[in-house]
Amino acid sequence: MTHSQKSAGTGNTDRSARMEIIIGGLVLLLAIAAIVFSRKFPSTGLATDIGSARFPLVYSCALIVLCAVLIARNLAKLKQPKTEAVTEPDAEAEVPNYRRTAIGIAVSALSLFAMQYLGYALVTAGYLSFLMWLLGMKHKAWNPLLAIVITALLYFTFSTGLNVPLPVGSLFE
Amino acid sequence: MQELDLLMNGFAALLHQPFALLLSVVGVAVGIVIGAMPGLTATMGVAILLPFTFGMDPVSGLLMISGVFFGGIYGGSITAILLKIPGTPAAAATAIDGFELTRQGKAGIALGTATFSSFIGGTLSIIVLVFMAPLLASVALEFSASETFALAVFGLSIIASISGESLVKGLIAGFVGLLISTVGLDPMGGFPRFTGGFTELMSVPFIPVMIGLFAAAEAFKAMEESGVLKNKAAALGRIIPPWSSYKRMLGTVLRSTGLGIFIGAIPGAGADIAAFVSYNEAKRFSKTPENFGKGELSAVAACESGANGCTGGALLPMLTLGIPGDAVTAVMLGALTLQGLQPGPLLFKEHSDLVFTLFAGMLFCYVVMLIMGLGCLRFMGKILQMPKSILTPAILALCVVGTYAINNSMFDIGIMLIAGVIGYFMQKWDFPPSPIVLALIMGPMAESSFRRALSLSSGSYDFLYTRPITAAFLLIALSTLFYPVFRRYQKKRQQRGLQLAAENGAA
Question: Averaged over B375-382, what is the pLDDT?
């Protein structure tokens, strides 16, 4: 058992605890923001009604309590003496490629933006072709061909079959 | 057994109407496709086909619509199990364990179980509709705002059982969902809340959030691994579940069907609520509740029989009292009226032949659904054998188009993507997404019912304990919420006891 393996085991637990504290903090801020904004909601004017703000207030207060529990629990975990739990690395497991996911998310957002101008067909074909390439299918002919086939299939199912008018794009309107 | 004779006559009449039989087959097929598409619901399918029924005779038109309704509820489970894309809100509950089974290479058996359970749930609900319609409809009418509120609270308490390893994380996800459910117009005053001036946020964007949290998040996660290899769990395996294993689930299926029928009969409650409640009850009665969420076959059976049990339940108040239980039956009510039929107690007296022919046709629809469902599963299973480099982009494209189809809105796609990214990070840090979906279904129902009940009782909170059904539901909700806490405490105490005994033994 090497020292680096030991520290990797405890490091993961620490990192997970710190991340949960950050998430708890963010949700806590969301709950506080909801309380602040809901204070501005007007009354319904009905004597028997509790008002528009009551339910968001109750939910926010519950969230604050739960986030406090989550944060306190993880702070306690960080203060505990470190156990030397070691996880053996799986030789067959693939190392997650977070960069690919980040690029995928960014391209999805970009496609959404472009779809307003270029329309469904053009953007979806390009989007699919790029994602296939990103995921390792790097064929010059098959990528665009498959992308066009899937785009057309979806287009005919939704636009023709189900009468859903898909975006044409402001540049082509 | 006058009803049985009338039903037999209905079957005989149906045999003389081959066009109606053909249209019910078409309806089921269209329903399955629509149900499997994210964003397209049974309501939308029924609404799309409604204009086609104008020129048809009542039996043909209504059977086609019924076929879409039944197929739509079932179809959602196929993509939920294979791809974690719940085609319908009800299938969100099926996706929890169904997709885990696919990951374990048991997609075939999960799909087969879902198909059989849907068939049993749906068929039994129609049989109940035939024999007990007036009785159940009167019970359902006892539900006022306070009972609906208590039912919603009971539904919300299910968060405790779908929270996975950490109850605190599940509750945080649930309350975030509840907070999101307050976005939109205030149910009493009509004042916009947390909309930021966006008209698109005037109602809770429930389906985009659901598609994002389940399907897009899974696609983003799949991008972490290279896509040239085929899916690890590519094999569909056996489809028809062995009788020995299905026999053990029969109790769960029957209980869930009963719950589905009852919940379906309550106005405002639908298949989504029935699926989650059935999941919770299946877990509560299970000898291995720890397997739920990790790929438990009886969970899939419970959700599907509960959701499909709802179909007959929803038709109960619509046919017997003329009160639609949900959006689909509201459209069906319109279809009946268009055919010159007035739903209500007189419908059974004046048009009993037609009504029982319809019931016979509905039973036929479920048989068609079973045959068609089992027949297409092998073909649908081919999806799993696609390389990830094609499947993942195709899932994302389907999510985009399906989300756009709900309101023809690019804004909804944006919400779906944001929910997808949040769902991806939730998966990374073990925050379950199902409580958010459940909260989005139950939250608006809980708030509007509570405030209506309060107004009806002149501002007094007495309705919480003076009405027996309300009090019973609230008590069950409390026990559902605190039972997992109690069990965990008990488990920890047992472990501590064993540890102490071991230490004493060693000393």
Answer: 79
DSSP B52: G
Q: At what angle do helices B42-49 and B327-338 cross, to 10 degrees?
A: 20
Task: Give me the mean pLDDT over the A49-56 stretch.
Answer: 90
**Amino acid identity at B70:** F
Domain span at residue B324?
Answer: 2-506
Q: Name the average pLDDT for chain B.
A: 84
Contact predicate A150/B388, CB 8 Å: no
CA distance linking residue A44 with residue A50, whole number of Å: 8
pLDDT digits (tens, 9 = 90+) for B112-135: 999 999 999 999 999 988 887 766
Question: How many folded domains does chain B comprise?
Answer: 1
**Residue count (chain A):** 173
pLDDT of residue B86: 81
Mutation choice for B interface testing from A61, A143, A164, A173 by most B CBs within 10 A: A164
* Neighbour-count burial of B328, counting CB atoms closer than 10 A to its CB (0-12 exposed, 13-18 middle, 19+ buried): buried
Please check the confidence at residue B290 and state whether its pLDDT lies above 90.
no
Q: Are residues A97 and B226, on separate chains, in Cβ contact within 8 Å? A: yes
Residues of A (15-74) whose Cβ lies below 8 Å from B = 16, 19-20, 23-24, 27, 30-31, 34, 37-38, 41-50, 52, 55-56, 59-60, 62-63, 66-67, 69-70, 73
Cα B358 to Cα B14, B71, B333, B365, B394: the distances in Å are 8, 16, 14, 10, 39
CA distance A30 to B262: 38
Q: How far apart are CA A46 and CA A44, in angstroms?
A: 5
Q: Is B505 exposed, middle or buried (0-12, 13-18, 19+ CB in 10 A)?
A: exposed
**Distant-in-sequence, close-in-space partners of B311: CB < 8 Å, separation ≥ 6:** B69, B70, B73, B122, B125, B126, B264, B271
Amino acid identity, position B110: A
Joined tokens for residue B270? 């639908």
DSSP labels, B94-122? HHHHHHHHHHTT-HHHHHHHHHHHHHHHH
pLDDT tens across B51-89, in order? 777 677 888 888 998 999 899 888 888 888 888 888 778
Contacts 24+ apart (CB under 8 A), A156-160: A157/B37, A158/B401, A158/B405
A44 vs B contacts (CB less than 8 Å): 186, 188-189, 191
Element (H, E) at A66: helix A54-79
Cα nearest neighbour of A123 on chain B: B397
**List of E strands, B131-246:** 184-185, 192-193
